[in-house]
Amino acid sequence: MPRRREPRPAPALELKTTRLAGIQVILNSAEHAALDTHLSTLFAATPDFFGGEAAVFECGRLPADAPSPDWAWLARELKSRGLNPFAVQNASAELAAAAQQAGLLVLNDVAPTPAAAAAEPEPVPEPEAVPAPEPAPSATAPTRIIDKPLRSGQRVYAAGGDIVVLAAVNPGAEVIADGSIHVYAPLKGRALAGARGDTSARIFTTHLEAELVSIAGVYRTFDAAPDAAVARKPAQIRLADASQIVIEPL
Description:
Elements: E1 13-17, E2 23-27, H1 32-42, E3 53-58, H2 71-80, E4 83-89, H3 93-101, E5 105-106, H4 114-118, E6 144-146, E7 155-158, E8 163-165, E9 174-177, E10 181-187, E11 190-193, E12 203-208, E13 212-215, E14 218-221, E15 235-240, E16 244-249
Parallel strand pairs: 2-3, 3-4, 4-5, 6-8, 7-9, 8-10, 9-11, 10-12, 11-13
Antiparallel strand pairs: 1-2, 12-15, 13-14, 15-16
């Protein structure tokens, strides 16, 4: 009788190319030693395979009680091998907080902890019928305005609102907003709108030459120039069906 072959354990991390041309780094382990060993093995034969592609850490496979990886170290290791990690997704509250401290974005709402998901809410008695109060006007954050060029390595963030940039966003710079992004100058770096999940957010620019654009966690990189209809021209970027990046001339 043939001997039954035991299934091979999953590697510490896996790389997957998404349909939006980004690289998904799927974490199966948060242990430093396991990640270090697998990275060395994975890139041994092709150390120069990647050419600066954007990458997102996928945390959905990590155990609920997994400690946080050393995000700063892990990001540096991948950058040294040609990847450019900028965010995490499907992370628990603890993992997301640690990732943010290391300078990474959180592309989605954090996953609930098992205890919170399992807890049953206590029944609430129905209130007596009373006239509903008039809704108070919602407070919105003021639009942030940037009137100086953004250099490589600079990052600006508009929490709770839109951002308007009146000068160039150079390669390696990042513009992030919870609302929409307006760049009235060359956009050559990265623009991430709807950072907290607003799928109605948009990106506008008078000169599209971006490295990466993202709306509500759906992102697209540009290994080559965008289509001729929008490359180096006025364009808007939006989501279609909450899942597909659409780039249109203005």
